[in-house]
């Protein structure tokens, strides 16, 4: 929209001072001719803006035409520019809005704080996704957002892990949570807290009925209960392994979610192997160690050693059959 573009031009000029017309055109994805028409529109509306042509020319506001926010401290201004965690705003359809908001904040910052805020935006990057997490399925959060902000109940068709057919639930949503790049719907079902992965929602319908949340309970309260239930779930399998020191850094990065005890590298001295404690939900997850081959050895428990040995034997047999077929 033209009004949004005019505001963006104004804010960019307040932030940057003199800006070449071609740079404004590139930033706003319009032609240079359109930029000059917009400048004329701003001038006609009373904004003291002018353009100078030539090699060192550009578009500029008259000195002193500034908006200032004196309530922000230096630390507060830097904190605002670490908000742009990749993925979260895009999933909510707010990437463009975030960029526009940050431009407005930059223009409104007291002049002494602007350099620190600009440096922060270039030097600090927040990426909430895990290493080697694999491609994430695209998630449509529109209907879930509608229910959350309209305070309406939701009817879900939801497929649980390990089940082929979805189930139907009527839930009372508290909100949405992004955890390590994965979106979850936090809701009550029959007055009890439930967690639903957004990428397993097969369909969602906003109902006319108002939401029935428990009095005095907020999203953060329900999330804390559900988070503890997941993290403190009993019945896990504790596994002790030893890892070749030369591969330890890579092993720790790729096994971060399973780490139960950090390795005591100081106590192990300069030996070839380092002992690490891991925790798995079920025995079969031990097979995740297979790609490390002879760089990892399972020390305990015996069933974990047997599970990994069986997995290795299966891979070897499969490889041998392929080699025999080629021969």
How many helices? The count is 11
Share of β-strand residues = 15-25%
Secondary structure tally: strands: 11
Helix content: 25-40%
What can you see in these coordinates?
- Helix 1 packs across helix 3 and helix 4 (74-80) runs parallel beside helix 7 (114-123).
- The model has no long low-confidence stretch (mean pLDDT 79).
- The protein is built from eleven helices and eleven strands.
- The chain is of the alpha+beta class and 327 residues long.
- Helix content is 38%, strand content 23%.
- The chain has helices at 2-16, 21-28, 32-44, 74-80, 88-91, 95-108, 114-123, 142-150, 219-231, 248-254, 302-326, and strands at 49-52, 58-61, 152-158, 167-179, 182-189, 192-197, 201-210, 237-244, 259-261, 273-280, 296-300.
- The protein is extended.
Q: What's the topology here?
A:
Elements (H helix, E strand, L loop, with lengths): L1 H15 L4 H8 L3 H13 L4 E4 L5 E4 L12 H7 L7 H4 L3 H14 L5 H10 L18 H9 L1 E7 L8 E13 L2 E8 L2 E6 L3 E10 L8 H13 L5 E8 L3 H7 L4 E3 L11 E8 L15 E5 L1 H25 L1
Keywords, separated by commas or semicolons:
about 325 residues; four-stranded antiparallel β-sheet; 11 helices; 11 strands
Question: Quick summary of this structure?
Answer:
The chain is α+β, with helices and mostly antiparallel strands and 327 residues long. It has helices at 2-16, 21-28, 32-44, 74-80, 88-91, 95-108, 114-123, 142-150, 219-231, 248-254, 302-326, and strands at residues 49-52, 58-61, 152-158, 167-179, 182-189, 192-197, 201-210, 237-244, 259-261, 273-280, 296-300. Strands 6-5-4-3-7 form a five-stranded antiparallel sheet, with helices on both faces.
């Amino acid at each position: 929209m033209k009004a949004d573009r005019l505001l963006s031009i104004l804010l960019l000029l307040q932030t940057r001072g003199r800006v070449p017309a071609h740079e404004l055109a590139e930033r706003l994805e319009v032609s240079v001719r359109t930029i000059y028409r917009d400048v004329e529109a701003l001038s006609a509306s009373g904004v003291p803006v002018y353009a100078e042509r030539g090699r060192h020319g550009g578009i500029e506001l008259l000195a002193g035409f500034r908006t200032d926010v004196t309530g922000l401290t230096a630390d507060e201004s830097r904190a605002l520019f670490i908000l742009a965690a990749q993925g979260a705003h895009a999933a909510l359809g707010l990437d463009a809005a975030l960029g526009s908001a940050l431009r407005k904040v930059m223009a409104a910052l007291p002049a002494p704080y602007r350099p620190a805020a600009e440096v922060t935006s270039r030097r600090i990057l927040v990426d909430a996704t895990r290493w080697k997490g694999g491609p994430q399925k695209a998630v449509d959060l529109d209907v879930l957002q509608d229910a959350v902000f309209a305070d309406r109940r939701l009817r879900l068709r939801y497929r649980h892990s390990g089940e082929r057919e979805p189930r139907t639930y009527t839930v009372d949503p508290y909100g949405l949570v992004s955890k390590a790049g994965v979106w979850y719907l936090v809701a009550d079902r029959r007055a009890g807290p439930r967690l639903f992965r957004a990428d397993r929602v097969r369909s969602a319908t906003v109902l006319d009925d108002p939401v029935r949340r428990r009095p005095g309970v907020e999203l953060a309260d329900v999330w804390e209960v559900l988070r503890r239930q997941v993290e403190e779930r009993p019945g896990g399998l504790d596994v002790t392994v030893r890892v070749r020191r030369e591969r330890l850094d890579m092993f720790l990065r790729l096994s971060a979610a399973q780490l139960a005890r950090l390795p005591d590298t100081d106590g192990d001295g300069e030996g070839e192997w380092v002992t690490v404690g891991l925790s798995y939900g079920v025995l079969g997850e031990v097979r995740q160690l297979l790609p490390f081959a002879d760089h990892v050895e399972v020390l305990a428990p015996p069933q974990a050693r047997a599970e990994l040995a069986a997995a290795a034997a299966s891979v070897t047999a499969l490889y041998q059959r392929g080699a025999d077929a080629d021969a």
